[in-house]
Amino acid sequence: MSTPTTQSLAGKVALITGASKGIGAATALELASLGAKVVINYSSDSTPADALVERIGANNAIAIKANAGSVTDIERLVKETVAWGGKIDILIPNAGIAINSTLEQTTEADFQKTYDLNVKGPYFLVQKALPHLSPGSHVILLSTSLCAVSTITPNYLLYASSKGAVEQMTRILAKDLGQKGINVNAVAPGPTGTDLFFKGKSQQLIDTISSWNPFKRLGQPEEIARSIAFLAGDGGSWVNGQILRVNGGMTVGN
User: Fold this and answer.
1) What is the value of pTM for the model shown?
2) Which Pfam families does the UniProt entry name for this protein (predicted)?
3) Cys bridge to 100: 2, 155, 213, 221, which one at CB 3.0-4.6 A?
4) Domains within the chain, CATH numbers bracketed
């Protein structure tokens, strides 16, 4: 793994949930390349998480299994992170689930599963990590650009509503934790080329979604990760309470 000339996150400890794949994995690699020590949380399969640790180096990364939607597991995750790294400087509640479901199709189980992971998880992760966040720390939540798309289709109701809650959490936490010197922002990706995105989609649908973007392509996990890294470092020191829509211009404005 190459080391950049400037390591702007040297000495920082980052905790990323859902970090074994997709945007979470790309973010772990990006932050590690900038000098941060990274906690890679995963929910079930340890193989990709262990591979990431090996790639980054065992001195600078650790994999911790935990259900990011369970308060009990969140408490343990925070405890193990602090035991390993001594502190938390960068908190990224990235773990999430997208169940495409219209109002009529949504079951109570779907609703519970979505809100447990997408809303309850980030809410209580910030709560449990707060005693270990010092002034200058950064909390970066994950939303979606779908919250700003006027042509959104009915099957995104459940997912987008959960991310709408995340955006409101971002705004209010920024006012609250900003008084403690902690920055809170959210990154809201557009369609991004992850395994989760490709799952169940035909090539025709993927091409159609790509055509909606001015650049006529999907975003890449590494592009989202670089935006997260910006907010996590000195570049984000005077950015607070903002929703950064990283989507190549698929949406403009709020």
Assistant:
1) 0.94
2) adh_short_C2
3) 155
4) 13-192+220-246 (3.40.50.720)
